[in-house]
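Hi team,

As requested, here is the filled-out complex form for the zinc ion run. I kept the field names the same as last time so the parser does not choke. Let me know if anything looks off before we queue the next batch.

— J.
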Amino acid sequence: MMKKTDWIIPGAAVAAALVWFVAHNVTAKEGKKVIVSVGGIEAGTFDLDKDDEFEIEGDNGIIDKLVIKDGKANMVEAGCPDKVCVNMPEISEVGDTIVCLPGKIVVEITDGKESEYDSVAN
Ligand SMILES: [Zn+2]
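And here is what came back:
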């Protein structure tokens, strides 16, 4: 059964999504970014000011776990044999990196504008 009011809900949802999208993009461009790449190919970009944790699948079946918390990114677990990346200090400044050589995983902090520029250049 279709009532006239049924049309209000999708419309409101679309409007809310648009507002979220615009607000999200504006803040994302101003904040620092965590760029994760595997084998030199960008695998994902995340906001440094947004707490998150995720697994990165690297080369050789190596899976590393990265945590973003309080404006810092830190490798907390790794499937690599040497665990060098886990022992690296947490990163928070533009240009800081965590590298997992066996997994060919690089985690880098950039400002949003710089990464936008890179993606255009590539
Ligand atoms: Zn590692």
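Two things worth flagging: The beta strands are 32-38, 41-47, 52-57, 63-69, 72-77, 97-100, 105-111. The chain has a mean pLDDT of 85.

Thanks,
J.
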